[in-house]
Design goal:
By secondary structure, this protein is mainly beta. The chain is about 0% helix and about 60% strand. The strands form two sheets. Strands 2, 4, 5, 6, 9, 10 and 11 form a seven-stranded mixed beta sheet that branches. The mean pLDDT is about 95.
Length: about 120
């Protein structure tokens, strides 16, 4: 079993900053890609940013220049630093891990965290 636990959400005023973290556990040997997605009420879940185990990153256009994704492979943890937050960034943020190798022979295509609420007030 692989578990992802997110932390760091909350309420912030527009223009402020928040940091999210997501730690994966479960005898993990490696994770190829880790990322953050978000889902606002009544909308689909969209990619925010993702990072490979080699450090390559990709961002949604709406967050480029404001958000920074990073990861610590030794800790199986991914981070999202969010600056210059806007009310439209309000959503539940989910962590996702892809291509997870566990123990000697376990493998999972992906796993999701439970989500953490980010609310940006105007």
């Amino acid at each position: 079993q692989v578990q992802l636990v997110e932390s760091g959400g909350g309420l912030v005023q527009a223009g402020g900053s928040l940091g999210l973290s997501c730690a994966a556990s479960g005898s993990i040997f490696s994770i190829t890609t880790m990322g953050w997605y978000r889902q606002a009420p009544g909308k689909q879940r969209d990619l925010v940013a993702r990072i490979s185990n080699g450090g390559s990153t990709m961002y949604a256009d709406s967050v480029k220049g404001r958000f920074t994704i990073s990861r610590d492979n030794a800790k199986n943890t991914v981070y999202l630093q969010m600056n210059s937050l806007k009310p439209e960034d309000t959503a539940v943020y989910y962590c996702r891990a892809e291509d997870i190798r566990q123990g000697k022979s376990g493998w999972f295509s992906d796993a999701w965290g439970q989500g953490t609420q980010v609310t940006v007030s105007s």
